[in-house]
Automatic annotation (TrEMBL):
Keyword annotations: Coiled coil
GO molecular function list: efflux transmembrane transporter activity
Protein family: Belongs to the outer membrane factor (OMF) (TC 1.B.17) family.
Name the UniProt record assigns to this protein: Copper/silver efflux system outer membrane protein CusC
Subcellular localization: Cell outer membrane
Membrane-topology descriptor: Lipid-anchor
Gene that encodes it: cusC_1
GO CC annotations on file: cell outer membrane
Pfam families according to UniProt: OEP
Species in which this protein is naturally found: Escherichia coli
Cross-referenced InterPro entries: MdtP/NodT-like (IPR010131), OMP_efflux (IPR003423)
Coiled-coil parts of chain: 122-149
């Protein structure tokens, strides 16, 4: 599965412009955060760490949260949300260094987070990880908002279709003027357009989950 990897996989096929085009690509529940390790930006940061003689396994254990990104279908997990402060949005994850990250130097210094952060490669690695998780959290939150908007508009569209059918039936029996039919048609067409206008943000959101 190529979403969230930062690679350019196959995006959904182009579809006829209608409300069915609003159907999002489904993300499985329990999607592991390790999938983010395949993003080019994180891979680049890890290569920089290796060039500085770092133990990548130890660096991941210290700085990379091992969680599930999704809970329900296409929704962010509570573990992902808890990585950020609810009010400020700041990174909440506290690194825990149990194994020396750098092979050279004193082991005790290698276990001290302040000492480790003096290495620019470590700072860069930590920032790339934070950015990756933030991008995913933001994209999933927007995804949920868009899905909610689509569901509401689809329910409204269904009710307007019934209203139009009734207006046409009443007009045929002479109970209302044709203006009633025209008003119902205008409302229906406007709601269809609102749904179609959601196609672009839905597709942009999907692309944001494919690329960093």
């Amino acid at each position: 599965m190529q979403l969230l990897l930062g690679s350019y996989g196959k995006l959904p096929q182009a579809q006829t412009v209608n409300s069915d085009s609003l159907q999002s690509v489904k993300l499985p529940a329990g999607l592991p955060s390790q999938i983010l390790l395949q993003r080019p930006d994180i891979m680049e940061a890890e290569h920089a760490l290796m060039a500085a003689n770092a133990n990548i396994g130890a660096a991941r254990a210290a700085f990379f949260p091992s969680i599930s990104l999704t809970s329900g279908i296409s929704t962010a997990s509570s573990d992902l949300s808890s990585l950020f402060n609810a009010s400020s949005g700041m990174w909440n994850f506290i690194p825990k260094i149990e194994i020396p990250i750098f092979n050279a130097g004193r082991n005790q210094a290698n276990l001290d987070i302040a000492e480790i952060r003096q290495q620019q490669s470590v700072v860069n690695y930590e920032q790339k990880i934070q950015n990756a998780f933030k991008e995913v959290a933001d994209a999933l939150a927007l995804r949920q908002s868009l899905n909610d908007q689509i569901s509401a508009q689809q329910r409204y569209l269904a009710s307007l279709q019934i209203t139009l059918q009734r207006a046409r039936a009443l007009y045929q029996h002479g109970a209302v003027s044709y203006l009633e039919v025209l008003d119902a048609e205008r409302s229906l067409f406007a709601t269809r357009q609102t749904l179609l206008d959601l196609i672009m943000p839905v597709r942009v959101n999907e692309i944001s989950l494919y690329t960093p």
